[in-house]
Amino acid sequence: MGANKKIMKISNRVNKLIIFDFDKTIVNLNVNWRAVRKKLRDFCLSHGLDIDFNFPHPIFESIKKARHIRQDLLDIVKNEEIKAVKKAKPIVGAKEFLEFINKKGIKFIIISNNHSQCIDAALKKFHFPEPEIIKGWDNVELLKPNPQALRRVLEKLKISPEHCLLIGDSNDDLILGKKLGIKTLLINNFNNFKQLKQIIV
């Protein structure tokens, strides 16, 4: 289904909450994940652990195998993400869209597999409006596409899935939205933000 048709289908459903992914949705972090994976593997090897961090192995699943140095590895990922904020770029149209929904009184939250401090730092750097809640890999029990964290947020905010829109950039976002019955849009260009801005009421 094309972006235009998808946007029109969700236009009458978005009123109370918009859920955003972070990297490549509203900000492009440009983390060199190949280099991060190598750094993690080298650190493990220096501690006598031969753990595969090569793509497509999920980084956090690999980290779980290194129990006694797990926190050190998590710190490496966190620091690399925060370091990436210096060279990060906002996605064109994202800030204007967030300001627009803010003025409309529509709440927004961020559910991401990035670290919450990285997300917060980038939002402040680009002077984005402040979300109601930020959920990153450091303050959830289970990462996307597991729906646990988002389900709990919706319960806390007392908002039902049918009054939400999820905007992301990956298959994980589509799966997450499907599991909770939330309309989901994959955003990848300014036209999508521009079209959304025109139909949000």
Report the CATH superfamily of the largest domain. Answer: HAD superfamily/HAD-like
Reading the helices and strands in chain order gives HEEHHHEHEHEHEHEH
Tally of distinct domains: 2
Number of strands: 7
> For the residues shown, what is the average pLDDT?
91
Tell the overall outline. globular
Helix content: 40-55%
**What is the highest CATH level, the class of the largest domain?**
Alpha Beta
- CATH hierarchy: architecture of the largest domain: 3-Layer(aba) Sandwich
Strand order of the largest sheet: 5-4-1-6-7
Look up the CATH topology of the largest domain: Rossmann fold
| Total of helices | 9
Described by strand count, sense and barrel closure, the largest sheet is: 5 strands, parallel
| Low-pLDDT windows of residues | none
- Report the β-strand fraction as a percent range: 5-15%
From the alpha carbons, calculate the radius of gyration and give it in angstroms. Answer: 18 Å
Distance between the termini: 23 Å
Structural class of the helix and strand makeup? alpha/beta
